[in-house]
Amino acid sequence: MSKGVAITGMGIISAIGNNVQENYNSLISGKAGISKISHIETIHADEIMVGEIKTTNAEFEAQLGLSQNSFSRSPILGIIAAKEALVQAGISDINDYKTGLISSTTVGGMDKSEQYFHEYFESNEHWQHINGLHAGDSTKKIADAIGLKESFMTTISTACSSAANAIMLGARMIKSGKLDRAIVGGTDALSKFTINGFKTLMILSDTYNTPFDENRKGLNLGEAGAFLVLESDKIVGEKNRKVLAYVKGYGNSNDAFHQTASSENGDGAVLAMEKALKVAGLEPEQIDYVNAHGTATPNNDLSEGRALQRVFDEGKVPEFSSTKAFTGHTLAVAGGVEAIYSVLALQNNRVYPNLNFKTPMKEFDLLPQTEVKEKELNYVLSNSFGFGGNCSTLIISKEA
Amino acid sequence: MSKSVYINSVGSVSVQKTFDNSEFLNEITTYNDTVASVVNPDYKAYIPPTQARRMAKGIKMSTVSSQTALQEAGLENVDAIIVGTGLGCIGDSVKFVRDIIDNDEQFLTPTRFIQSSHNTVSGQIALGISCKGYNFTYVHAAVSFESCLIDAKMQLENDEAKNILVGGVDEMVKYHVDTHRLIGHIKSEPADSTRLLTVNTKGSVMGEGAHFFVLSNEKQESTYAELVAIETYNSIAQENIPNKIEAFLEENHMTIEDLDLVILGNNGDVDFDGYYENLSTGLFKDRPQAYYKHLSTEFDTASGFAFWLSAKILKTQTIPEVVKLNEIEVSNPRTILIYNQYRGENHSLMLLRKC
């Protein structure tokens, strides 16, 4: 059994709160952040619901001291989350230890690229956004905002499992001694690109998403920035850090079934969960709560549900819920958002409700937790799956 | 004790005719342009035409390059697939955005959206060989490919995997070229590839390519070289670069004198080649030097070409005349250092050694 990697700071901005505390309060009071879209003009506005952060870019830029329309929304959300994480960890000099920044995104600066797509050739007014189409550009802006220099920095894009993979890489690099500290997470803003993309796949719900419900109609897209600070035992000792929780296990596999759909029996998901349990040195029955991927698409919830039954043996699936009914599906960031929620669950010994659940799925008798439940938690398992067959699982623990 | 990491095979589709592993830059493609496309292999020999029709160029190039690498390593499957790409299948992303705007968000089809996901190539390769192992995609500009190597090396050293397919791929599309020419990242005047470093103009010549390799912690007949060390840095002040390089070598118990060849990423951009020139005339002035971007052109994973070049040099023990940057000769190249950066950011050092 290997020792976990310490989590010493967290930062998040999502549709249910501008910081960690607000997010937790919403989760516990059952307050969802799903609404009609207001920041993006789209002809689908009346047919979709989203997990949108209501603060405008202009307000964020004023708050961060940036000039107006200098950044796309993804780096802005990322900067806010990363800064909160560093404050919580108590880091004043980011370069005092060997630090890496591992971010993730699916759209990067797409919100601006689509806005000025033709205009770039008519006027130079918005050329500052041209290079923002590179996914790595959002990470660079976060690095600049936190003052990271001469350091390891990379960006992961494995669709909806991206941030889970960023956390996994950070933990592995610390374990291998390549880094003392890793700032890990992701950022994704809403865009016409993803709205229309998921629309063509016919997996967007026109109402509040209902994970693991028989009558689920699809997902609500969301937006978020979420970062965690992972630190080595050396830093934790030398700086006398308060450890929030540990990254105990991680598993990554590919479903190798279809470019956008999960296999019916969730082979990739099973492998990812089994690998994570193995790395953590845990038996399935030691998992106290599963924060499911649970996007509320017909395909995901069936595949994930079957995978859960396979890993945990029928009837022995622990309390589980999807928090996507609160936040919407925040794409690359989902694994980061949910890792933070997993830490908060451990800290507070609370299982979150799976909102909007009414009717059990006919394929199996899995019932998600629908009310807030107080329960001693030691190990939380969090799943994130994505296009391209990418499946990732993290196990977060209270003790190392 | 961590295990050594070997480059057991290579695969390349580039602006040069590199897709045939039995050759080594036997014929050179020159150009006088601001962009250059890959020398296309016979895709039909690798991909059924029905599939190829809707396939993004990045996927096609990667299919050939990755199959070449797998075949040479004698493998049908691997323990992990790790792909780096600056922009993924950017052609499909651009087409999808154009369709959204020009058709007012109507009459869209999912294929372009699906292919625009950055992890399409790694997913497609996994699907093609039914690889359920670790699958990652790095999308960090000029160190996208290097990020793959760092990840793979860590797994192989720790014996978490035996064989890993790593690769870098980027496709070139007109819209991306046009927009990046607006902001001066791509040259506005054609550059002659035979004198790229003396054109004295801003921006680079943009291109594309796909470079795949099987990395392993077991040496075999086909092995090209050992990957000794790799490091990336988000930024380095120009005056600090020599110190960083010396520290990197020291960590690997080496000095500048141990380097039989230094491969530099000069791309003919008058604003940024100073990073390399200072090293050429300073730290590396007594070392044999080579460059490659006149052959590969510039793109986010162009350093994959340098990695391919180094592997070929170490295996064949020949340095093609066309890449030589100075007159210092070396008869038996054993150790190669590759240094790359793009527009003063995302610096990388890769150290390879003959086995």
Walkthrough of the structure:
The complex is a heterodimer of chains A (400) and B (355). Chain A has 400 residues and is α/β, with parallel strands linked by helices. Chain A has two domains: 5-238, Peroxisomal Thiolase, Chain A, domain 1 (3-Layer(aba) Sandwich); 247-397, Thiolase/Chalcone synthase (Peroxisomal Thiolase, Chain A, domain 1, 3-Layer(aba) Sandwich), CATH 3.40.47. Chain A contains twelve helices and 15 strands. In chain A, the strands form three sheets. In chain A, strands 5-4-6-8-1-9-15-14-10-11 form a ten-stranded mixed β-sheet, sandwiched between helices. A three-stranded mixed β-sheet of chain A has the order 2-3-7. In chain A, helix 3 (73-89) runs parallel beside helix 5, helix 6 packs across helix 12 (334-348) and helix 9 (267-280) packs across helix 10. Chain A is globular and about 60 Å long. The mean pLDDT of chain A is 97. With 355 residues, chain B is an alpha/beta fold. Chain B has two domains: 6-216, Thiolase/Chalcone synthase (Peroxisomal Thiolase, Chain A, domain 1), CATH 3.40.47.10; 228-353, Thiolase/Chalcone synthase (Peroxisomal Thiolase, Chain A, domain 1). Chain B is 31% helix and 21% strand. In chain B, the strands form two sheets. Chain B has a ten-stranded mixed β-sheet with strand order 4-3-5-7-1-8-12-11-9-10, sandwiched between helices. Chain B is globular, with a radius of gyration of 19 Å. The mean pLDDT of chain B is 97. The chains are: A alpha/beta (400), B alpha/beta (355). At the A-B interface, helix 4, helix 5, strand 5, helix 6 and helix 7 of A face helix 3, helix 4, helix 5, strand 4 and helix 6 of B.
Largest Cβ-defined interface? A-B, 67 and 66 residues
Secondary structural class of chain A? alpha/beta
CATH architecture of the largest domain in chain B: 3-Layer(aba) Sandwich
The fraction of residues assigned to DSSP E strands of chain A is 15-25%
Helix-residue proportion of chain A: 25-40%
Overall mean pLDDT of chain A stands at 97
CATH domain class of the largest domain in chain B:
Alpha Beta
Mean pLDDT of chain B: 97
Distance between the termini of chain B: 19 Å
Radius of gyration of chain B: 19 Å
Strand order of the largest sheet of chain B: 4-3-5-7-1-8-12-11-9-10
So what's the oligomer here?
heterodimer
How many strands of chain A? 15
Main sheet attributes: strand count, strand direction, barrel closure of chain B:
10 strands, mixed
Helix content of chain B: 25-40%
Looking at CATH, the homologous superfamily of the largest domain in chain B is Thiolase/Chalcone synthase
The parts of chain B where pLDDT drops under 50 for at least 5 residues are none
CATH homologous superfamily grouping of the largest domain in chain A: Thiolase/Chalcone synthase
Sheet having the most strands of chain A: 10 strands, mixed
Per DSSP, what share of the residues of chain B sits in E-state strands of 2 or more residues? 15-25%
